[in-house]
Write a structure and sequence with these properties.
InterPro entries: To_sf (IPR038606). By secondary structure, this protein is α+β, with helices and mostly antiparallel strands. It has one domain: Bactericidal permeability-increasing protein, domain 1, CATH 3.15.10. It contains five helices and six strands; from the N terminus they run αββββββαααα. Strands 1, 2, 3, 4, 5 and 6 form a six-stranded antiparallel beta sheet that branches.
Length: 237
Amino acid sequence: MQRASVLVPLLLLVVVGRVATEADPESQGQTVSVPPAAPSLTDPLPFDASNFTVYGLNDFTWDPSRTRFTRTSATVPLSFPNVTAFAHTSLNGANGTSYVQLRNVTVRLDAQYEEKDDLLYVTELGGSILLEDAKVKIASLFPKSAKLSKIWNKAIGKSLPILVELFNGGKLKIEYLSRLLSGAKFYAMNTINNALNTHGLSFDRLVESMAKFADGSPDSLQCDGTASDTLVGWLRA
C-alpha cells in the first residue's frame, strides 16, 4: 500500500465531521487555527463539505493487530466495503446530482498529536489508501448524448483505482486537486481539534472515554458503534 498524504483526509474529514457534529452540534461555529504558510500558488484551497452527502462510513472494520497507538501518534487501518458520495453539481449549463461509489476501500490513517495546556490537539494527518473498484456518474457530462455520458462515466469509474494509485505514488501531478485535498486536510484537522477542545480531552481523558465508549458507559462520548468487544480487547491489550 503506497503513501498518500492528501487523499486520505477527504475520507477522514467526512468521518470526523459526522462524529463531531453528532457529539456536539454547537461546536460548528468554533474555529481552531491551523495556519497555512504565506499565500502562494501552492496554498491549500478552501474546502466546503456541506455539498456532500456520504453513505457507508458507519459500516467499516479495523484490524487491532495493525493498530499503533502512542502518546504522540496513532496509525489505524480501516476497511470500508462501500462508500458512496453524492453532490449537487453544475456542468454544461445544467444542474444535477452526481455520485461516486467506492468499493472495498482500505484506508490507513496516520495522525500525530501533542498536548498543550492539558488539551490534546492534532498537528499532522496523513496515511494511505487502496481502492478496488469505483462507479462514477457525473450529471450532464454530455447533455445531448446519454449514451456518450454513460460510456465516459464508466471509463472514469474503471480508471479511478489506477489514477488513485498513480497519484498516491507521486506519478500523477494534478496541482489543483493537490491543493483542494490539502484544504480538506486542514478542514479535517480543524474539525478534530474542535471536537477535542469542546470535550476538554487530554490524551489520558481520551483513552478513558474510548474505554467507556467500548463498554457502553452512559458518561462516554456516545456514537453508534458495533465493535465494542474488539475495541475493549485492544485497549486492554
